[in-house]
Amino acid sequence: MALSVAARPYDFALDxxxxxxxxxxxxxxxxEPGGFGGVLGNDVSRLTAIVPTVAALIDVFRTNGLLVxxxxxxxxxxxxxxxxxxxxxxxxxxxxxxxxxMGRILIAGEPxxxxxxxxxxxxxxxxxxxxxxxxxxxxxxHETLSARGIRQLVFAGxxxxxxxxxxxxxxxxxGYECLLIEDATESYFPEFKAAAIEMIVAQGGIVGWSTxxxxxxxxxx
Length: 221
Ligand code: TIU
Description:
Blueprint: E1 3-5, E2 12-14, E3 19-24, H1 28-31, H2 36-39, H3 45-48, H4 51-63, E4 67-73, H5 84-87, E5 99-100, E6 103-104, E7 126-130, H6 141-147, E8 152-158, H7 160-173, E9 177-186, H8 190-205, E10 209-211, H9 213-220
Parallel strand pairs: 3-4, 3-8, 4-7, 8-9, 9-10
Antiparallel strand pairs: 1-2, 5-6
The protein binds tricarbonodiimidic diamide (TIU).
Enzyme class: hydrolase
GO molecular function: biuret amidohydrolase activity
Protein name: Nicotinamidase-related amidase
């Protein structure tokens, strides 16, 4: 039976039997100083601030027995899954695969690539390493979610206008109904976060819905 979540552009009919939470890229690379986000010149403190909200959101899904999916932006150590067009975008010495303050930047298995301990996955949850900004490219995730009957995705994580929005758009095109939890996502650029949310809900929810965590909690209360 569907639960009605107050959201923009209109209420979201959440079906717990078909819904999963996707936590995008809450890894040290983006959130701690010295990682990929930092070497790109960003102030990471904005992102650190949402960690308690993301933890509370994960708790809602765990408490209600719903699937939680965690993604990491991660490349293989030999960089065979990193196109030169992506790797060569950054400054020499600070590119994907280069040695940074938390190991090789955006490389699977390195310290910087780990999900923050406060948000660590638990048994039964999915952890998806994705070589793209979007979560479906080269991951097999659509097949995995389809096999479990998942048709609705609730989104959190970083950054709103890059990996979160890209993943939401990919999901929208694959037929998922998508709900963004707007205080459980953040950008290095507040104006980009605000614009991304407006782009998502505009035109009758052209990409999906958006709501604060409190509205979702009220639905499950
Ligand atoms: N740079 C930036 O805003 N984001 C990324 O590179 N990846 C994600 O958003 N995860």
